């Protein structure tokens, strides 16, 4: 929804009914991840994509049908057969697409979701994509969950409480995916057999973009910031030297900070603004900046990537200084240095591509090898987003809607 919201919201505001198709699950070499969306307006305008072109025509027809009939549907698209006119994915994967009519009547919570997305407030939308036609857990019912509240309904208070608690945990970790329940809210994930009344809920979590912290206000940092912004990161450039750390030199950064790098990182950690998706790129290759900064970063248990630029000689000296600072071999093993994949990069932008490639490989578990020298699926199954372990809950702080009655407390499977 996020990728098409700007285009579809005027349709919604005008009172139009449009068809919305959302990828809810993938298998093997699927071209788009869960959450990818395509919308079709009343006049036939198309925005977004669910497959990069493979099955867009078929999904377009389903979206048109859902828009006119008012009935949602879950469709599965797999590999094309030998028939040249068959509809399927040429890449060899499988996707499930939920197609639904969207309007003010079917999705009254959309304005609240849009406001949260605009403000960077975490929010999750839980939609029943497989279930009964009516009653609790009916197909297309929706629950919207924030960290402190919820709106909408899946059809019963018990189901709302149980799914709301589950979705709240998924939202905390920025997780998107399918969950399975019975109609009283008992989670069926992990059950060997499906029970009568089972329903499937697609949870789409919207959280703030992951952060890319670039330390060192040099020309290479400008290139890394530009590419990081292109990849969807919220980019911060930090340097202690005010003459170099200026917004005009880093137009693609969301913010430019003049601070000693290790002090800035420590403060961001203390304020809870660093999580398991955060990427740290140290480009200064100056020991007075690098050593205290890397000592701070490498001691953090949850960072997606910590890389440092510099020659192999610089890196050897850096390692010796970090050992003197008390870091052990396990902590040092987390450091990617010299940063980047071996692309033969020379220019700042080529180096930025090299570093970005290593960051992507670390995120998705890629090998960094040429695809011509690998076997198996090109797109591996997405790994769960790492996250900082949640703090222990404080008694009395749970939102009221999330407090189940005592008779249900023992029956919820988490």
TrEMBL record:
Residues 370-414 are annotated as: Disordered. Residues 11-78, 117-182 form the XdhC- CoxI domain. Residues 212-359 form the XdhC Rossmann domain. Pfam families: XdhC_C, XdhC_CoxI. Residues 380-399 have a biased composition (Low complexity). InterPro entries: MoCofactor_Util/Proc, XdhC_CoxI, XdhC_Rossmann_dom. Signal peptide: none annotated. PANTHER family: ALDEHYDE OXIDOREDUCTASE MOLYBDENUM COFACTOR ASSEMBLY PROTEIN, MOLYBDENUM COFACTOR INSERTION CHAPERONE PAOD. This is XdhC family protein. It comes from Kitasatospora nipponensis. The lineage of its organism: Bacteria, Bacillati, Actinomycetota, Actinomycetes, Kitasatosporales.
């Amino acid at each position: 929804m996020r990728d098409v919201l700007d285009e579809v919201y005027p349709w919604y505001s005008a009172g139009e009914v449009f068809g919305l198709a959302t990828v809810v699950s993938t298998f093997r070499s699927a071209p788009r991840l869960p959450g990818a969306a395509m919308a079709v307006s009343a006049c036939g305008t198309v925005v977004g994509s669910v497959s990069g072109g493979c099955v867009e025509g078929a999904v377009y027809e389903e979206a048109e049908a859902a828009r006119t009939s008012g009935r949602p549907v879950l469709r599965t698209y797999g590999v094309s057969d030998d028939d040249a006119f068959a509809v399927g994915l040429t890449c060899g994967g499988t996707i499930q697409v939920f197609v639904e009519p969207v309007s003010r009547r079917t999705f009254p919570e959309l304005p609240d979701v849009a406001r949260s997305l605009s403000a960077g407030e975490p929010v999750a939308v839980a939609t029943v994509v497989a279930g009964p036609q009516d009653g609790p857990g009916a197909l297309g019912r929706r629950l919207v969950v924030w960290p402190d509240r919820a709106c909408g309904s899946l059809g019963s208070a018990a189901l709302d409480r149980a799914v709301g608690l589950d979705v709240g945990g998924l939202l905390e970790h920025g997780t998107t995916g399918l969950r399975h329940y019975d109609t009283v809210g008992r989670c069926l994930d992990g059950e060997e057999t499906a029970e009568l009344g089972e329903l499937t809920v697609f949870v789409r979590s919207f959280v703030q973009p992951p952060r890319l912290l670039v330390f060192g206000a040099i020309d290479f940092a400008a290139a890394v910031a530009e590419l990081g912004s292109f990849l969807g990161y919220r980019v911060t450039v930090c340097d202690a030297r005010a003459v170099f750390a200026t917004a005009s030199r880093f137009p693609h950064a969301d913010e430019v900070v003049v601070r000693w790098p290790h002090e800035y990182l420590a403060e961001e950690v203390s304020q809870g603004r660093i999580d398991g998706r955060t990427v740290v790129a140290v480009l200064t290759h100056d020991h007075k900046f690098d050593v205290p900064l890397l000592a701070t970063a490498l001691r953090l248990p949850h960072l997606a990537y910590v890389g440092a630029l510099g020659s192999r000689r610089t890196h050897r000296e850096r390692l010796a200084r970090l050992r003197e600072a008390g870091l052990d071999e396990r902590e040092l093993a987390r450091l990617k240095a010299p940063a980047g994949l071996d692309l033969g990069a020379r220019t700042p932008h080529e180096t930025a591509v090299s570093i970005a490639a290593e960051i992507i490989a670390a995120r998705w578990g890629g090998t960094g090898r040429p695809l011509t020298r690998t076997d198996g699926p090109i797109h591996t199954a997405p790994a769960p987003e790492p996250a900082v372990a949640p703090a222990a809950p404080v008694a009395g702080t749970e939102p009221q809607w999330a407090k189940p009655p005592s008779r249900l407390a023992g029956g919820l499977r988490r």
